[in-house]
Sequence to fold (134 residues):
Amino acid sequence: MIGRLNHVAIAVRDLEGAVATYRDTLGAEVSAPQAEPDHGVTVVFVTLPNTKIEFLEPLGEGSPIDKFLEKNPNGGIHHVCYEVDDIIAARDQLKAAGARVLGDGEPKIGAHGKPVLFLHPKDFLGTLTELEQA
Fold:
């Protein structure tokens, strides 16, 4: 069902500082910041030869990553994202197997303009897992 690793997301308090570290220290190619109000974050993508790193900074009050950053004040890995060919078929197969889909279970449009879903970390070895339609 799952395809390639699309990205690893890192929650940060200081998006500019994270960008500077990867761009200036590691020499990485970094995208411009992109506000995602529907998800309560501002994102930046670091392009690597085989995948991407996504930085997530809270956007506005009540961002879904606020609690994560309260528990992890220095930031850290927030989730991993895998590609799937058909997000609805993947969702239905996972739910039939007992996996919990977060939110209302319906895909939302993610930062890449494609449908995404999140799966409960308790069902996936303690890791918040995102699925993105390829």
Remarks:
- The domain at 2-133 is CATH 3.10.180.10 (2,3-Dihydroxybiphenyl 1,2-Dioxygenase; domain 1).
- The beta strands are 2-11, 29-30, 34-36, 41-47, 52-58, 76-84, 108-109, 115-119, 129-133.
